[in-house]
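Exercise: predict the fold of this chain.
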Amino acid sequence: MPRSLNPTNKYHAPSFKKVWKPLTKIFSNIPPLASRGNRPLQMDFEHQLKALVFFHLEEHTSASHLIQVLKEDDFARNFVAPAAGIEKSSFSEANNDRGLEQFLYVFKELYRQANKTLPDEYAELGELVAIDGSLIDAVLSMCWADYRNGSKKAKAHLGFDINRSVPRKIFLTDGKGDERPFVSLILEPGQTGIMDRYYQHHKNFDLWQSEGKHFVCRIRTNTKKTCLKTNKVEPDSIVFMMLLSCLVLLM
């Protein structure tokens, strides 16, 4: 039995419209989403994205809960759901099988908007980009998300814009995807990447420098370090050592 609802539009409508407003500027240029079969799409990408935004804002407990609200809530039925409504099976199919190209396009365009709007902090340090990879749990039916027997995971390779506190670039692979090659894709010449010790790879260090990309990378404890030159550090400074150049070799 579906739970009875007491829909109230005055709470979620303003917050939804505020989140949705930046997206209205980019929908005309989003790559078209085509049906993969002979059956026409019951949910286009715009409605798919609206449903997911609504799902997270309202903190629905499941897809079933969301579908119920899309049927019974006046605001959700008229502004979020497709005109003909959407069934759970079609909604699940839409979110499982399509939309990746469109989501990545939305991500890129929203960052461009944020980049023009948000203040640029720490300008004296240049453009700072934190780089890391993060595993995302996947269901066993997602065969492409290879990780280990009995476990499926995807991996997001993310560049985070520290100057503006927003994600900057993202790449997706299966869970076994190596993180190091994505540094060159995330960083642009003149930027400084900030990475943990997993990214230590001396051939890559040379490559990034040849590409005009800077980096700060933690190194492993078993690394042999030969200091070539040190610079004077001001008393009471947060910097405790400054190296003009340093030769780093694995033991």
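Check your answer against the key: The helical segments are 9-20, 45-58, 63-72, 74-80, 88-97, 100-117, 182-186, 202-210.
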